[in-house]
Amino acid sequence: MRLHRLSITAFGPFGATQEVDFDALSSAGLFLLHGPTGAGKTSVLDAVCFALYGAVPGARQTPGASLRSDHAPVDLPTEVQLELTVGGRRLEVTRSPAQPRPKKRGDGFTMEKAQSRLRGYDPERGWHALSKSHQEIGEELTQLIGMSRDQFCQVVLLPQGDFARFLRSDAEARGKLLGRLFDTRRFAAVEERLAELRRGAEARVTAADERILALAQRIAQAAGPAGAEATPIAARPGEPGLAEAVLEWAAIARSTARERLDIAHRVVAWAEDRQRGARHALDAVRELARLQQRYEETRLRSAALEERRPEHDRCQEDLERARKADRVAPALELREEAERAYRAASDGLGRARALLSPELRDVGADRLAELERKFQQELYALDAAREAEERSARIDGERVRLNREAQADDELIREADAWLADWDTTRAVLKGRVDASQEAATRAEQLAGLLAPARRRLDAAGRRDGLATDVQQAEERLTGAREQELDARKAWLDLRERRLRGIAAELAAGLVAGEPCTVCGSADHPVPASPGDGHVDRATEERALAAQQSAEEARGRAEQQLGLVRERHAAAETEARGDDASASSTMAELGELVDRLTGEHAEAHRLAAATNPAREALTAAEREHTERLEQRQEAHGRMSARTAAREALDGEQARLEEQIAAARGESPSVAAHAERLTRRVARLADAAEAVRTEQDAAQRRKEADDRLSDAAFRAGFDTPEAAAATLLDAAAQRDLQHRIDTWQAEAAAVADRRAERDAREAAEQPAAQPSSAQGEFETAEWLLREASSALAAADERCGELTRLSRQAADEVRRLGPVRQEYERIARLAGLAAGTSADNERKMRLEAYVLAARLEQVAAAATARLQRMSSGRYTLVHSDARTGGRRAGLGLHVVDAWTGSERDTATLSGGETFFASLALALGLADVVTEEAGGVRLDTLFIDEGFGSLDDQTLDEVLDVLDSLRERDRSVGIVSHVADLRRRIPVRLEVVKERQGSSVRHRLA
Q1: What distance in Å separates the CA atoms of residue 640 and residue 638, rounded to the nearest whole number?
Q2: Is residue 95 within 8 Å of residue 114, measured between CB atoms?
Q3: Which of 168, 47, 226, 411 has its CA nearest to residue 909?
């Protein structure tokens, strides 16, 4: 990979566009990048890294940090453009970070997204675009370079400070750097996967052991007292031997439970024999007591039966007399029915005669029937007159109807004449309403087009005024954040300076008697420095640094928040002004404009809404005009027809009145005269019928008296009244019969019992005592229940123990393969993690791989270190353990002058520099080979030369000059003045008030 040209615009300290010609600088093979502190030497390397990877080196890629130069004009965008050759291809990559830019319309800024462009060069086609995608460009360059950003920053941009720390750091810190460069994450993933598998297998073993222990607890519960005789299980889940202990313990519990089951069987047999004997004795005593009680009950029932004998005889006599009286009952019922019918007929005759005139109340039925026929004939003669009277009434109704219709037609004609007289005026008014509504609809559409933008402007003005306060608050927060950052930075620098002043005491605190000093290398420490007042330790400085970084991040977030708020405020301001940028955008004026347009739009909309009603009103009026003309013409025709009909009705009614007057007599009307005759006919008919009914009822009563006297005599009664007194209803007779039957049944039952022989014999024996026999039986029954319960419990316990033991045996069989798998995985995981006894050096798998890489780096670095140190020093890899730490990533230096091997932390400052330089160059060679052998034609070495003497500096420069083999160029980044004399080709970075700039110094 060779760099040709770099263009930096508004990036870091560079406020304008700066061009770096790497082709001219690389012509001599070795060039110097120098300038005062803070001028931007490292920023040139940051620009190269940003162009290739879209980000600056990790140490300077802080969250919230902006790559844009504070010196650049607001209209000059930040951009980095790099032209390079990699993988045999000539490419040009251009990148711009996310940055604020002025808005094209209105005031304020808007955030522009990051952009990337990649072009390729073809001798035939020239420069042509390849891609504008961040992802595609990143993948393309990473594949061509063959290194990640971290690897590139360590291999191409050699940071000497990092490698000096690498020399002095412990194995863990070296592992982190080497792991990041050689990407050994897959080996760490293998370690983690093995650890995860070990944890999973261990969890499965523990879970299986817990299930076995749970079964053991259930076996203990099921065993009951038998479980207490066995030795408790002392093993815990996960420990070897747990399964065998559980199985042994379960076998002891089963054996004890079977012995207790045999004992329970024998106890139950004895209890059953005792219970059967007690049952037989109890049954015999109960039978004797029953017979004795039965005999006593028979004696008492016999005495009570004799006491009820007189009552039984009386009931039997009453029943016989009642059955004789039943033969007279039909005649009695017939007599009573005839009496009731006669009284009802007499009452009806009295009511009918009361309605007749006095001269007709005593006449017979024949005379009453004759008068009825006479009045009925007279009533038939009134039918024709009644019809004439009804017709006359209808004629009166028709005349009233004609008069009402005449009045209605007169009113209709007058109303039609009045309405038609105003027709022309009405039509003109309605036509005008239609035209006005149509004009209002057009006006409403125009106002609606003006109202929506006005409302949006009013809303935007409201947001703008609210965001103005937010902008002010964001500015205040930014000011506070900047002040806090300055205070934190000042405090950190103060603490750092105080710590550096007392660093000797801090180093002295780490001295150990007999071990060499990390500064001078001496094993004697006669007068170690002691901390003075106000000494600052490393932890305090790191906390101050963390506070300063936190304040810097807070300031970055405040700047970003202020930019976003300003952008929203400018957008709201632009929207509030609308299309006319000079228009007023105050809330009051916009509110007044919206209110005015809203009122005008509402009024126009209200008027426009009346368009359809106005049209419908005009159509209805025209239709009504036609209808009223037709109605007036029809009314005139009906008036002529009514005049003829009225004359015909008058003549017909005169003829009917003559017929009616002759027929009604003295009554006010024919209908009244007919009604009076109808009532008289009905009264005469009712009276005649009542006389005949009363005569028939009297005859039937006399016949019933004769039959009753005859029936009483035949039944043996002197009079009908005596038979009636003896008569009983069916319920009373059933009651007497029931009482008689009950007495007779009781008498038969008592006779049967008195004939029982066993009861008489039992009565002759002593009284039975069933309570004592019952107590003895209950005792035997309780003993049997207890024994049966104990037997069932023992049997169930044996069955449960057998089942649980079988489950435990199954669990133990299933646990076997799981435990074998766990032991195998645990052995592999321990070897990979360095915790196994088989891993003698306690090296993790990733550390083992990194140790091999470190051994390659040490071998490659030694080739250059020997030249730089005139053959004195050699770097070697050490896998020895130091203290309690794990082995694998040790790095020692062999001193050829003394023949001793010591830690790289004992090198002096200058020795540490060229040792770290050799290590960096060796690491670059190994990483390059790891990345696929990509040729690196341009390298940069950053700082560290000020610690070398002249002779060592010449030797180092000779080594660097040897790197120019095969057309390779090396750039040294330093502000050491002596290097400007030794290296004629230079790129000077000049620090100026308006921003830094670069100047080429070519030989």
Answers
A1: 6
A2: yes
A3: 168
Q: What is the residue whose two structure tokens read 């889940």?
A: 237
State the Cα angle at 914 between 912 and 916, rounded to 5°: 65
Q: What is the pTM of this model?
A: 0.39
- Angle among Cα 943, 946, 950 to the nearest 5 degrees reads 130
Between CA 233 and CA 213 the distance in angstroms is 9
Q: Quick count: other Cβ atoms within 10 Å of Cβ 932?
A: 11
Give start and end residues of each alpha helix (H) in 716-844: 720-726, 730-754, 757-764, 770-833
Residue 577 near residue 583, CB atoms below 8 Å: yes
Residues 6 or more apart whose CB falls under 8 angstroms from that of 803 comprise none
Residue 529 amino acid letter:
A
11: phi > 0 → left, psi -120 to 50 → alpha, else beta; which?
beta
| Closest alpha carbon to 571 in 475, 460, 473, 471 | 460
Phi, psi of 176 (to 5 degrees): -60, -45
Q: Which SS3 state, helix, strand or coil, does residue 965 take?
A: coil
Around Cβ 407, how many Cβ atoms within 10 Å?
10
For residues 145 and 937, give the distance between their C-alpha atoms in angstroms, rounded to a whole number: 12
Residue-wise pLDDT for 609-630, tens only, equals 777 787 787 788 778 778 878 8
Distance between CA atoms of residues 882 and 890, nearest Å: 9
d(CA 88, CA 5): 17
Mapped onto helix, strand or coil, the DSSP state of residue 147 is coil
Q: Is the Cβ–Cβ distance between 815 and 208 less than 8 Å? A: yes
φ/ψ of residue 270, rounded to 5: -60, -40
Residue 434 has a pLDDT of 77
**Bridge partner list, 5:** 21, 83
At 946-996, the pLDDT tens digits run 555 666 666 666 666 665 555 567 788 877 777 777 788 888 889 888 889
Q: Three-state DSSP class for 528?
A: coil
Distances (CA, A) of 569 to 42, 461, 907: 37, 10, 60
C-alpha–C-alpha distance, residues 140 and 149, integer Å: 13
Which stretches in the chain have pLDDT values below 50?
Answer: 160, 883-884, 933
